[in-house]
Amino acid sequence: MRDSTENKITMAFIRHGETASNRRKSYLGWTDEPLSEDGCEMLLRNRKNYPAADLIFTSPMLRCRQTKEILYKDQPYQIIEKWKEMNFGSFEGKTYFDLNGNEDYQRWINSGGTLPFPDGESRAEFITRCKAGLLDCLMELEKQVTVPEKVVCIVHGGMIMALFDSYGQGSYFDYQCRCGQGYECTLSYAVDANGMVKETSISMRDEKLIFGE
């Protein structure tokens, strides 16, 4: 453990490339769906537009790991298990049109998206899980001999919204982005005397959109 109390790093959060379900605009959470052919081609075509990485983290989901392999080839990476996409429960795989007239769906819409998905999780539960995953990520950084200057995380759209809502300057829906896009920011955090990351010290500032195309 280093004798360090505060760190600032450049951290990018990139949403995975497009899948068939993304193209259909259906809810895609815990289904481990691969990238579509078009999604792979888009990432390959625009690979030069993504930031360099000294260290890479990903969600455990296949679509994120495939995105990493396309954008960052043979660079090593670590999986953050808590960074799965939201559990959409019984809405999984369905589109807005499929759910139109569904009473559970209407209740969820009327709540502003805060009610738990039937047989799934709530936004609050999801945000808590994403924040716990970020703590895992930062503790992994603390194990490095030197804190990397540039970190890339390949994750899900909902996770980007959750983390910037918690630590950024905007709110949840301000950070929606398309597949292959994301946000780069300056992330700062403090470490206590026991070498643990202080969750209350985390901030994400100076964010800029990664267009990815």
Automatic annotation (TrEMBL):
GO CC aspect terms: cytoplasm
Coiled coil: none
Amino acids binding substrate: R15, H16, G17, E18, T19, A20, S21, N22, R63
Transmembrane segments: none
E.C. numbers: 3.1.3.3
CDD domains linked to this entry: HP_PGM_like
Alphabetized InterPro entries for the sequence: His_Pase_superF_clade-1 (IPR013078), His_PPase_superfam (IPR029033), PGM_Phosphatase (IPR050275)
Domain of life: Bacteria
Key words, A-Z: Hydrolase
GO molecular function, one term: phosphatase activity
Record-annotated active site: H16 (tele-phosphohistidine intermediate), E85 (proton donor/acceptor)
Gene3D superfamilies reported for this sequence: Phosphoglycerate mutase-like
PANTHER family, per database record: BROAD-SPECIFICITY PHOSPHATASE YOR283W-RELATED (PTHR48100), HISTIDINE PHOSPHATASE FAMILY PROTEIN-RELATED (PTHR48100:SF1)
Protein name from the UniProt record: Phosphoglycerate mutase family protein
Species: Roseburia intestinalis L1-82
Phylogenetic classification of the source organism: Bacteria, Bacillati, Bacillota, Clostridia, Lachnospirales
